[in-house]
Amino acid sequence: xxxxxxGTIAGEAVSMVWTDDVTVxxxxxxxxETEIVEQVVGGTSSTIAGPAGASITTVATATSSxxxxxxxxxxxxxxxxxWLQTAEGISLLAVQQGTPQQ
Length: 102
Prior knowledge:
Elements lengths: L11 E7 L4 E8 L2 E8 L4 E5 L6 E7 L2 E6 L4 E5 L2 E6 L15
Antiparallel strand pairs: 1-2, 2-3, 3-4, 5-6, 6-7, 7-8
């Protein structure tokens, strides 16, 4: 089908992921500021600040929780209003789809 515009963003889009059936999360960067825009298809959007001082390159989801990977391999998870670095040395951030076969 024809592409549609879901919304506009400020800055450069760095990474995106579906967070559920109708919501897309987009990491944007403008200078040293990183933001995460959550856009409901056909609905509203919300913007949250990314981790302070981290240059984010990848976004993924796991059990409805957004995870971010920084340029230097830090893994960040949001807890309440804060971003916590939970690991380092991460080279790839991905999401498993479906159930593994035995």
